[in-house]
Task: structure prediction
Amino acid sequence: MKKIIFSLLVLIMIWSGACISNPEELKTPEPPRVPAIAQLEGSYEDAINGYSIKYPPEWQAKEGGSAGADLTIHNSNHSCTVQVFIEELSQPTSVEKYSSSVIGNIQQKLLGFMILAEGKVQMGNEIGYEYAFEGRESGEPLKAKLICLTSENRAFAILVAAETNIYDLVNEKIDNTIYSFRLQEAFSLADIPRDESLILYGLPPITLDPALVLDSDSALFVQEIFSGLVTLNQSLEIVPDLAESWDISEDGTVYTFHLHQDAKFHDGKPVTAGNFKYSIERACDPETGSQVAGSYLDDIIGAKDKLAGEAEEVSGVKVIDDHTLQITIDAPKAHFLSKLLYPTSFALDKENVDSGEDWWRHPNSTGPFKINTWKKDELLILERSEHYCGELPKVQKVVFRLWGGVPMTMYEQGEIDITGVSGMNIERVLDPANPLSKELVIIPELSVNYIGFNSTEPPFDDPKIRQAFCHAIDKAKIIEVLFENRVQQADGILPPAMPGYSEQLEGLDFDPEKAKELIRQSSYGSTAELPPVTYTTSGRGYVSVLTEALIDMWRKNLGVEVTIRQIDPESYPYTIKQEKDQLFDIGWLADYPDPQNFLDLLFHGESGDNIGEYSNPEINARLETAREEMDSEIRLEMYREIEQMLVDDAACLPLYFNENYTLVKPYAKGFTGVPMTMPWLKYISLEPDE
Result:
């Protein structure tokens, strides 16, 4: 059944201006038919393209779909599908001519094609043209209906198709759905008050589910839309968020959070301690499929049992009353409060989550901003939430132009207010003679970019091979030639602005002869005995110059040929652990400013974020001891020693620490830099130049 519907929809996508240039004129009945429409509960509105449609409450709507559909609506078993298509027209065209060209293409491809009915139809204030038709595909009888409308330079087609017996069973629901389609005035950026709206370039989020988010593009939105017990201020200090205060027991294991009395979800519903218990337990539920809950919640008593599917609840999370939440952890840990900055513990509305698998596209959340408009791959508008219990954002709206163009060009043309500076533009932006130099903000990022080794498979289960691959890379040359010294060479793992960073750390320096000697000392004896080595990276065919440089250095300095395998960039953060080969590239951006967030999460043998599955019993034991050390100076010194051990053992190949080069319009006040994933939009105000 799915094959039949998909094939017919592909036929529809043959539309083009050429199909309309010499259309056959139609004799159309007058006046147009006005269909009766029952009231339906499900609804979808596309403010960007200017249309709306209703559908039965048990049916589901999803943006996009096969054959380039803008919207797909289907019943519960997917046996009947309604899709909306939009086409840009090169010249104004009557709805009769347009619908004639579309049905003409279908007629040429569908066996036994027969029009059952046709004519004008009243669609709100617009006149559409419809065809009911049938035919056969792959021997199966097919029944379908097509309605077309035109509006200025665009055409809309609403198509429903199903096997004949299925179509007849749900005919009333089909008609009620397709005849509810209405055109409305399309959204324009000109409608947004410029003095109240921050406009940015953006990449679309992969998910807004706080329990699932892994990539930084999605996390940017999650941090602004949702909120938790605590947050970071612009000085990277932990401050109250939905919890106005907290108490810690004398033994450092029991945290009692007192929620704001006026903490509310975006719909005005009160936030209670029960919402936090639900959120934490949902994140730890194996059915949720979180890859991060184990890393950020496993200190809580009972979390590991819940993650393993051995408990119904997380016993260490207790609701004392609506405004009091108690969390008990397994040992005193100085970094525990920092872990609550990660979205896995953010407050969720259970009713919202239970509304459907795509609930996060319409989240009822608690952050400083809520979603106003979201058109996939085009526009995402955040609006200030008046129910946020903290200091309200200074701007009314933040408009993200998704895939809107070239960010630097957009910034220079005044289309966006803040943008990062790409490598090819840094030199001219740094030029004091360039006016843009006065708008530049440079902030060291709390991140590290490194090459990971799959330590569970040959040849990188041998530490001497890992060390050899490190000594074979001339990082100084890479930084100078490829990055023009705009990033800092990483000899270790902790970035310079991170507590615990050590200038005395000794890295594995560039030494090809030592690298070759390590190969000879290894269990393999020579490069000829090494198994094939594959390097996993993100991409869609294009190989970065950095990847090419690394491959070339391993070839020249070790005599090892490394092949490349690419994974789609969008799925890379979510699949790399399962799909990694012997080598892989990765970047880590701080979730909180603590060395535990790097050394423990990335390299402890039992950490879910340990993608290379590196495990060293002595280092594991030291990391576990450091977790429970409450003296700050002793703790940081422990992490310095652990970092040196990780570097010596070549747990990874650190490459560089990044710096953010950001352009900010003079009228956008309050931007102090974003060194890590954290909420920052609420601090921005728009003020005229003085």
Remarks:
- The domain at 2-186 is CATH 3.40.1000.10 (Protein Transport Mog1p; Chain A).
